[in-house]
Fold this sequence. Notes:
globular; single chain
Amino acid sequence: MDNTPIFHIAFYRFAAIDAPETLAASLRLLAADLLGSILVAPEGINGVLAGSAAALQRFEQALTCPGFQDGAFAGMAFKRSACTTAPFARLKVHVKQEIVALGVTGVTGLPAAAPAAGRSGIDVSPQQWRDLLADENVVVLDNRNSFEYRLGRFRRAIDPQVANFRDFSAYIAANAPAWQAAGKRVAMYCTGGIRCEKTSAWMQDFGIDVFQLEGGILNYFQQMPDAEQDWQGECFVFDNRIALDTRLQETATTADEVYVAPEDAWRLARARRLDAAE
Length: 278
């Protein structure tokens, strides 16, 4: 039996992709020794992969090489964690219209194409994020699904009560006028940063200062040895590990313990199908 340690990486980059199908074919070759999922769209790529440290390093080097896609992914950040459970059973590379769907027509993750062209939320480091959490004049927004919030959250974080990322924009539109009138600033976070980056430029059209946690929750755990001071519970991850603690270690939490609300029954059924397939 192969006892080679398994690692997980998460990555994304908003970048103009002229030929998504061609890029997807190239990514299938680059990731041939790995398992996981990569989404490709005209606005960029979003991926999670698992495999040996050596195989992941080869993939990262090839993807960020200046000669690959004219250097579109050079300098891209990869968030890595060790695995006890194999996160994935197969490799899937899909082409979609968006790598993350906000549900607002005309908004993409590309700054030049967004309504708030050239603007985006203010990236803040984990240490700066801790300072924002202590500021009572800051609205701390969890930009994830409610079942993720229930499992774990930053202190003072608000649950927008959304069942799908597309619902988040409606919550913002309903509450932004009151925040703006009260002179509130917004600090927003998600698992890896992609949802916040997609949302932030559009949110500034409401006249609100928006701060986003650089690299998301996973980067916070990675950079802050005492992250448990600010984080309550566990962090949900969309793979077979289910949840991680602030040390990026897999917990004993199961899908049945996560998907407890009636509206999440379809998610639990899907998780059980995936388990049966493996």
